[in-house]
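USER:
Before I trust my own judgement here, I would like a peer's view. Write it directly below this note and I will take it from there.

ASSISTANT:
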Amino acid sequence: MPEIKKIVLTGGPCAGKTTALVKITEYFSGFGYKVFNVPEVPTIYSTAGWNYLTPNRDLYYQGERAILETQLALENQFLQLAEVCTKPVLIVCDRGTMDISAYIKPEEWEEITAMAGTSPNELMERYDAVLHLVSAADGAEQYYTTATNATRYEKANEEGLQIARMLDKKIIKAWTGHPHLRVINNHDDFEAKLNRVLNEISKVVGLPQPPHDERVYRIEMIGEIPECSESMITQTYLVAEPGCEVRLRRREWSGGKVVNVHRSKKRISDSEVIETERQVDNNLYEQMLQQADPYRQTIRKRRQSFIWKGQFFQIDTFLSPVSDLVMMETKGVAEQETVNFPPFIRVIEDVTGNRTYYNYNIALRK
């Protein structure tokens, strides 16, 4: 059986998914991959006559149930096609099953997943990575348009922009907890947004990629974050060969959700790294802890993730082995771009590229 990876491409309205799908197919086909694109199921139903703005609640409910069942069936059929291919396969889903939960009441979502013989946790595990492209309505309003989708109701006015931003955040929340959820910022240059998509998928399939465009700052909190996803992170470094960094991370959210991720990162040249991630269950996580690097301490920190003016930020408040450090990181902001600093933080120092503040070095026993 060939190597098969399944990716979800999602995001709020007018995020650039259609263009990204074309770019993904062209790029990874050039590396010898067979690329299958699973079409966006809600659009199939909308163009066929089902209206998700219908006041008929029963019709809306049955439509969402039909969308879930069709999505599952389509993905399963493409998986069967992939299994008989002779090349490695990339299955790219234009939206995934968890997107549906952003448009339906929680109790109805529980009902329709049970009727389909599955659960939210099982649906998350169907995919190797989820890439969320931020809507142009958040930080790139001048590019927001409804011309590319006749069924879109988030019109290009202030009310429509507000709806689009709200949906964008709901969709991120729906996928929160996936071990390889990556939020792709808006950029001054749309090509930079597409390149970030290609880089993230390259990580999943194990292709070399350029080092990340990320900016890191030591900060002080001077206000409350209006809306964010909060989790606790326990990070342990494992014994590894020279030149290779291996990390074991447990991330916990309120409500009992736990995700364990094993990551290996190796630099193969000054301009390329190979970075791979895989989810591990609790039993394997406990076993791997036996390989902990004796020269490094375990890091514990609280993470708050949010979007501000189209850019994705992570604020880490360290609890151990240091307790007086708060760091903020934004990924995918190119060197020439301006960071949209939120008003509730004060930047103390730009520490981008400063190895003193690398987690790997913070963990080093003194």
